[in-house]
Amino acid sequence: MAIPPNLILVLFDDLGWRDLGCYGSTFYETPNLDRIASEGMQFTDAYAASPVCSPARASIMSGKYPARVGVTDWIDWTGSCHPLRGRMIDAPYLKQLPLAEQSLACALREGGYQTWHVGKWHLGGPEFYPERHGFDVNLGGCEWGCPHRGYFSPWGVPVLEDGPEGEYLTDHLTDRTIELIRSSGDRPFFLNYWPYAVHTPIQAPEHLIEKYRVKARALHLDEIPALVEGEPFPTEGKRHLRVTRRLFQSDPVYAAMIENLDWNLGRLFQAVEEAGQWDNTLVLITSDNGGLAT
Question: CATH no. for residue 174?
């Protein structure tokens, strides 16, 4: 009987398709992701299930369109939905992923898989956390849409013990994930690797920020305005604001955040290789709803 493959689902938060080297970025550096793209299948056309994160994540977990699962807007940490919805009368919407939904993790656990969730969840309060949706392990998944205390410890994430002072969140989550891989044994695993990055606040390790400051200066990108005001926001409550458009990539902090994310993925993949599992592991990498103007 064939051994079931391990499954790794990587879901970046707010990463734009132009933010990777394999899709044409020359300022941001993503060697590990570029390697995976060259060795596997790279998609050039895609649709997001929703322009905001909670519905997209509910759709991925349930296999249903957001309107069918009932999560059609961004869920606030307090359990409310986004206040700037406009004047249209909405269809009823949910503030959590219902426990009645057969999640991807539930189906795989029934099939004998170990199921691990790492990182952002944003699909409801404690009674709807990942462990209630079929995950054996939950590292960092709660009602938060971003680490509102920032990416440097103490993070204050309800289901994640703080690391040493100043430890970077993506590094910590990857360290914990590598521990799971090394102790996984013979049973196949499903890793739901959903880092909080690159959601705001835009923060990164200082040594990487300095690297991209130097790069921007060398290319004279720091001398040219990179952002322009575009059209007014389409939503009713934000029409007094304008959409910001980026003419070219040059933000050292965002570039550093992306490189750190890529580096951590490289560490994760190396751990799978060292465990002798790389040739029996399927990896899917995507983003929830598109990128920031950064």
Answer: 3.40.720.10
Answer whether residue 243 is part of any domain: no
Evaluate if pTM is beyond 0.70.
yes
Domain of 35? 6-82+91-215+249-287
Cβ partners under 8 Å of residue 114, min gap 6: 136, 137, 184, 187, 188, 189, 190
For 43, the token pair is 């998609």
Closest CA to 281 of 7, 9, 10: 7
The number of angstroms, rounded, from the C-alpha of 64 to the middle of its chain's C-alpha atoms is 19
* Domain total in the chain: 1
CB contact burial 53-87 (16+ within 10 A = b; e otherwise): bbbbbbbbbbebebeebbbbbbbeeeeebeeeeee
Closest CA to 108 of 2, 3, 6, 1: 6
Which residues of the chain fall below pLDDT 70? 1, 77-91, 293-294
Measure the CA–CA gap between 186 and 1, rounded to whole angstroms: 14
Is residue 275 exposed (0-12), middle (13-18) or buried (19+ Cβ within 10 Å)?
Answer: middle
Asked if residue 231 is part of any domain, the answer here is no
Residue 244 lies in a domain: no
> Across-strand partners of 139?
118
